[in-house]
């Protein structure tokens, strides 16, 4: 059992090393991320933007780096942060696509906020595999395509926003009770809570 914990801790450290290496960081937000290979006890928990289950172990459950001018793509190394529940990379300059594997990497995600970046492409339907997802915020990007109808199985989803992108098509009916503000700014999007399809926006 102890060996399994040590392996998981090493994975979280591997995850954070990869995140730091992946991003350009002009503000020095990640300067506090100095990796001490001689110790496995809690030191990453004081890193800027990192939240741990407790301060005596390196198990990371939250990574919040909003408005830090980070650039690059969503790091593949996140696959090693298997316990992560909160990922907030909002308000940066992150480009590329949303990785279709992100819920395989982070199956326990509750809060995913990638808003205010330069992300393009479609929303991966595979996000439906994040079965605990309560909050999904993707506003103010360059995303396009349709909102996946598969999201109807995200029964915990309470907060969803894709405003100010390039989405088109009909909003899935199960989202009709969500806030209209979360869908505005997409010229091709229609249906409740926006105007009915076929009658303009």
UniProtKB/TrEMBL annotation:
Membrane association type: Single-pass type I membrane protein
Chief localisation class: membrane
Leucine-rich repeat-containing N-terminal plant-type domain span: 10-53
Keyword set includes Kinase: no
Record keywords, A-Z: Glycoprotein, Leucine-rich repeat, Membrane, Repeat, Signal, Transmembrane, Transmembrane helix
Cellular component GO terms, alphabetical: membrane
Pfam families linked to this entry: LRR_1, LRRNT_2
Subcellular location(s) of the protein: Membrane
PANTHER family: LEUCINE-RICH REPEAT-CONTAINING N-TERMINAL PLANT-TYPE DOMAIN-CONTAINING PROTEIN (PTHR48063:SF93), LRR RECEPTOR-LIKE KINASE (PTHR48063)
Protein name: Leucine-rich repeat-containing N-terminal plant-type domain-containing protein
Species classification: Eukaryota, Viridiplantae, Streptophyta, Embryophyta, Tracheophyta
């Amino acid at each position: 059992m102890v060996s399994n914990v040590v392996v998981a801790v090493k994975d979280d450290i591997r995850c954070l090393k990869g995140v730091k290496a992946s991003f350009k960081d002009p503000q020095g937000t990640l300067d506090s991320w100095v990796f001490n290979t001689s110790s496995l006890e809690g030191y990453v928990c004081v890193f800027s933007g990192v939240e741990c289950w407790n301060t005596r172990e390196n198990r990371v459950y939250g990574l919040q780096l909003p408005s830090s001018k980070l650039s690059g793509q969503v790091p593949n190394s996140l696959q090693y942060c298997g316990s992560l529940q909160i990922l907030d990379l909002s308000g940066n300059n992150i480009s590329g696509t949303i990785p279709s594997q992100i819920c395989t990497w982070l199956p326990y995600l509750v809060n995913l906020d990638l808003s205010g970046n330069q992300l393009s492409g479609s929303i991966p339907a595979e996000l439906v595999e994040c079965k605990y997802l309560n909050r999904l915020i993707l506003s103010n990007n360059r995303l396009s395509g349709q909102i996946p109808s598969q999201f109807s199985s995200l029964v915990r989803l309470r907060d969803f926003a894709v405003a100010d992108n390039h989405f088109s098509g009909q909003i899935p009916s199960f989202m009709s009770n969500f806030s209209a503000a979360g869908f505005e700014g997409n010229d091709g999007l229609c249906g409740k809570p926006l105007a009915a399809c076929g009658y303009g926006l």
